[in-house]
Amino acid sequence: MYLLYLDGSGSVQNPTEKHFVLAGICVFERQIYHLITETDKFVSSLNLGGVHDVELHGSVIANGKRSPWKGMGRKERLKVIDLGLGLLRDAHWGVRAFAVAVDKHAKPLSDPVEYAFEEICNRFNHFLSRLWRNGEGQHRGLIVMDNSHYEQALQRLARRFREDGTRWGALANLAEVPLFVDSTASRLIQISDLLAWAVWRRYEHSDTRYFDKIVGRFDKEGGVMHGLVHRKPSTEECHCPACLTRSAIKDSK
User: What are phi and psi of 146, to 5 degrees?
Assistant: First the structure.
C-alpha cells in the first residue's frame, strides 16, 4: 500500500493571498518507518527540546512567532526549513511528491480546496494505475491529512468520488476515505507541510529557493510531470514546470 500524506498552505479566506496549495508526499508502507526515523534524528539535532515536542510547520517556522522558533533568528529558521526539505530530497527514490497550486482568481472555480483535493486524488490514482500498468504490482492507496475544518466536506467528497467517480472517472485504487490526524503526531504530515509551504512560496511570491530543492521529487514519467498542477486564469502566461509540461503535451498533439 502507498500512503499519501497531505497538508495545505495559504488561506482561502484571506483576500491578500492569491494562492491555495494542497501538497503531500507519497510513501510506500515499508519506507514510512525509515523516513520518520530520519526526521526525528533531524529534529533532535536542532537541540530545541524534546524531540516529540517540536513540530515542523513551514509558516510557523518562517514567522518565528511561536516557541521554540521565537528566539531564533530568521536566517537560522529558514535554514531549518531548507534542511527539513532536504529530508524529502534525499529520501528513498520511491518517495514521490504531489502538489496542486490554485490561483483563487481562476474561473470558473467554486472552491479552491475541493478543486485541489479532487485533482490530487486523481493524480494519486493515476500513479497507482501506472505502477500496475508498468508491471510494478497492484497497490491500493490511502490518503492521510492534517485535521482541519475541511475534514467533513472532504470526507463527503471522497465518498462521492469513490461511488460516482471524478470528472476523470473512477478512483478504483483508493482503499478508503481520507484519514485525518493531528499533525503534531505525524512527521510525514509535517514534511508535507514544508513541501506545501515551499510550493506556496514559489507561486505566491515567485520565491523558488525552496521549491527548486524538491522539484525533482514530483511524480513524473517520460519527461511528463504528473505530480504538479497549477490552476491559473487562462489569460495568464506561466513558465512553471507544471505549465511547461502541459504546453508541451498540447504542442505534441
Answer: -70, 145
State the CATH number of the domain containing residue 247.
3.30.420
Residue numbers of the domain that contains 188 = 2-252
pLDDT the model gives residue 172: 64
CB 27 within 8 A of CB 35: yes
| Residue 207 to residue 229: CA distance in whole angstroms | 17
Phi, psi of 13 (to 5 degrees): -80, -20
* Crossing angle of the two packed helices 74-89 and 187-205, in degrees rounded to 10: 110
Give me the pLDDT at residue 170, please. Answer: 56
Residue with cell 501538497: 23
pLDDT (tens digit per residue) in 109-133: 778 888 898 899 889 988 999 998 8
Phi-psi region of 201 (alpha: psi -120 to 50; beta: other; left: phi over 0): alpha
Residues in the chain: 253
Query: In angstroms, rounded to a whole number, what is the distance separating the alpha carbons of residues 210 and 195?
Result: 9
Q: Quote the radius of gyration of the chain (alpha carbons, Å).
A: 18
185 exposed, middle or buried (CB, 10 Å; 0-12, 13-18, 19+)? exposed
Nearest to 81 by CA among 211, 234, 226: 211
What span, in angstroms and rounded, lies between the C-alpha atoms of 236 and 68?
41
Distance of CA 65 to the CA centre of its chain: 24
Total count of domains within the chain: 1
Nearest-CA neighbor of 188 among 62, 24, 50? 24
For the entire predicted model, the pTM comes to 0.91
Q: What is the pLDDT of residues 183-219, one digit of tens each?
A: 889 999 999 999 999 999 999 999 999 999 999 999 9
